[in-house]
Design goal:
Structural class: alpha/beta
Strand order of the largest sheet: 3-2-1-4-5
CATH class of the largest domain: Alpha Beta
Distance between the termini: 21 Å
CATH superfamily of the largest domain: HUPs
Number of helices: 14
CATH topology of the largest domain: Rossmann fold
Largest sheet: 5 strands, parallel
Bound molecules: iron/sulfur cluster
Number of strands: 7
Length: 316
């Protein structure tokens, strides 16, 4: 039995590798890490210490066509979309496919955590769409959440968490990942100014921003309520509601009408340094499963996994 672990230098995949070695033996486990060219330097220390803990070498692979995520975005003239980032695709997913082509494994191990419904949902979607990988999710099977994984790492293995977590980031992603939010970007501006500036410059060239304001619902039902409240008028008769609502929306004062239009771009070089001040610097998890579909729709089985009514092995 030969298994591959996709190791991201995050705490959850670090524990997934440990569990895989315990179950299958070090000689049957290959650990792969994809270097993106923009990871924090402390990853070298983390890799070294984890190798000592596992008693096993971690293989590092890098896509030599691109120096780092900014290089990918520049060459492809594409920053990201709501559910896709070209840098994840090129620097991680393509590298996974490269390894799959050259090595044969009975199972692939992923570090999805237990406790977060979105993570459970991603695991379900990935398993359904990539059954050929025979994926295993040891943290979900063992019901280990990210905080618990962190505890195991620091207390049981005595390995300090990677520097990105110590700096306040939620994941050990690249410096200045385009998947962040306002608080994240402002922290990056403070800590990784050259990366921040390069991304801000790139935004202007590509004409697309990493950050946007929240999406406001513009369904007729929402407009109906909104207009009624704003103009303090009685409900419209049921028929012809849509038309009346749109007409009334046009009569609203300008700033309110702006809000009804949906997302607005926020350029990094215009980002208010105080924006997101009271929020956590969150980034979306980045991994080797880029472009898995329907991850934004929560499958009802994710709830069952969370409540213990189902196991990952029941998902096909
Ligand atoms: S962590 Fe962010 S910047 Fe790095 S490859 Fe993933 S999406 Fe791109």
């Amino acid at each position: 039995m030969k298994v591959a672990v996709w190791w991201s230098a995050g705490v959850t995949s670090a524990i997934a590798a440990h569990l895989a070695i315990k179950k299958y033996g070090a000689e049957n486990v290959d650990i792969w890490f994809f270097e993106t060219g923009a990871h924090h330097k402390d990853n070298e220390r983390f890799i070294r210490e984890c190798e000592q803990w596992y008693g096993k070498h971690i293989s590092i692979v890098q896509n030599r066509l691109y120096k780092n995520p900014i290089d990918v975005m520049t060459k492809l003239n594409y920053i990201k979309s709501a559910y896709y980032a070209p840098c994840t695709d090129v620097l991680k997913k393509e590298m996974r496919l490269y390894v799959e082509e050259h090595y044969s494994y009975d199972h692939q191990i992923f570090g999805f955590e237990f406790g977060d419904i979105k993570e459970l949902n991603r695991a379900i979607r990935f398993k359904e769409q990539n059954a050929y990988t025979n994926p295993l999710f040891p943290l979900i099977d063992e019901k280990i959440s990210k905080p618990q994984a962190l505890w195991i790492l620091e207390n049981s293995a005595q390995i300090k968490r990677p520097m990105m977590y110590q700096l306040g980031f939620s994941n050990n992603n690249c410096k200045m990942c385009p998947k962040g939010g306002f608080a994240y970007f402002n922290l990056c501006r403070k800590l990784f100014k050259p990366f921040f500036d390069a991304t801000a410059k790139l935004e202007r060239i590509v004409g697309y921003t990493c950050a946007t304001t929240k999406l406001y619902s513009i369904t007729p039902k929402f407009l109906f309520k909104y207009v009624r409240k704003a103009k303090n008028i009685k409900p419209f008769p049921k028929r012809g509601v849509e038309k009346s609502v749109w007409i009334s929306a046009k009569l609203l004062p300008r700033p309110k009408r702006e809000r009804l239009k949906g997302r607005k771009k926020v350029w990094l070089d215009e980002l208010d340094p105080n924006r997101g001040r009271n929020m956590k610097p969150i980034t979306a998890e980045c991994g080797v499963i880029c472009a898995t579909e329907f991850t934004e729709f929560i499958d009802e089985r994710a709830e069952k996994l969370l409540s213990g009514q189902m196991k990952m092995e029941d998902i096909w």
